[in-house]
């Protein structure tokens, strides 16, 4: 969202300054990268006074952590939307594709999300329960459903971790141009993602009996 759009919506005057600042921070991130993010830059983007951000964030790190939490929430929503109307046998694949597409559409935000998540104090301990980890529980529930509830708690947890590693790795690998000819041959980016994920046992389509 641009500065003009933010100014026109006037979120600050509706008492939604924090939300306006987070939207502004995302705009700065995607346009200029993490190094350009500062409380002053966010205030300028949101069209508020330089002092306004300090009502919600004491420093840049606190702002980054809030942006990361918002990013994980958006990731959760993207995955939830992706599986909403999918038949049960397609949900694991759909959730994996949605994850990678979110990372591709929001590269700077995605980077900040994981930079902050690596800091043990950046996110609360109950992140999974609050969906702040981008729908970890959603992924877990989807895998459990696909298995018919047959996995032990340990196997379910390990399968969820393996799934997360798979999509995170694929999101990174998709940046390499060397795969472009293969994507073209397969019919485009989405077909490529589905093809790769379908070869991961943990995220493949559930085989019908």
Automatic annotation (TrEMBL):
Q: Record's Pfam families?
A: TetR_C_33, TetR_N
| Gene3D superfamilies membership | Tetracycline Repressor, domain 2
| Species | Phenylobacterium montanum
Q: Which residues bind DNA?
A: 38-57
PROSITE patterns assigned:
HTH_TETR_2
Q: Which UniProt keywords apply?
A: DNA-binding, Transcription, Transcription regulation
Q: Which domain of life is it from?
A: Bacteria
Domain HTH tetR-type, which positions? 15-75
Please provide, alphabetically and separated by semicolons, the GO molecular function terms listed in this UniProt record. Answer: DNA-binding transcription factor activity; transcription cis-regulatory region binding
Name-wise, this protein is TetR/AcrR family transcriptional regulator
């Amino acid at each position: 969202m641009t500065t003009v759009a933010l100014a026109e919506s006037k979120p600050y005057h509706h008492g939604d300054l924090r939300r306006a600042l987070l939207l502004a921070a995302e705009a700065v991130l995607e346009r200029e990268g993490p190094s350009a993010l500062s409380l002053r830059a966010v205030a300028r983007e949101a069209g508020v006074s330089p002092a306004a951000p300090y009502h919600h964030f004491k420093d840049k790190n606190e702002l980054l952590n809030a942006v990361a939490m918002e990013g994980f929430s958006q990731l959760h929503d993207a995955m939830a939307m992706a599986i909403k109307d999918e038949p049960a046998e397609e949900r694991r694949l759909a959730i994996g594709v949605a994850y990678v597409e979110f990372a591709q559409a929001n590269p700077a935000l995605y980077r900040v999300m994981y930079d902050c998540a690596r800091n043990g104090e950046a996110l609360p301990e109950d992140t999974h329960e609050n969906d702040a980890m981008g729908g970890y529980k959603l992924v877990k529930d989807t895998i459990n459903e696909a298995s018919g509830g047959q996995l032990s708690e340990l196997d379910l947890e390990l399968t969820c971790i393996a799934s997360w590693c798979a999509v995170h790795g694929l999101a990174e690998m998709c940046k390499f141009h060397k795969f472009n000819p293969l994507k073209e041959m397969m019919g485009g980016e989405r077909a490529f993602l589905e093809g790769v994920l379908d070869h991961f046992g943990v995220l493949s389509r559930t085989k019908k009996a």
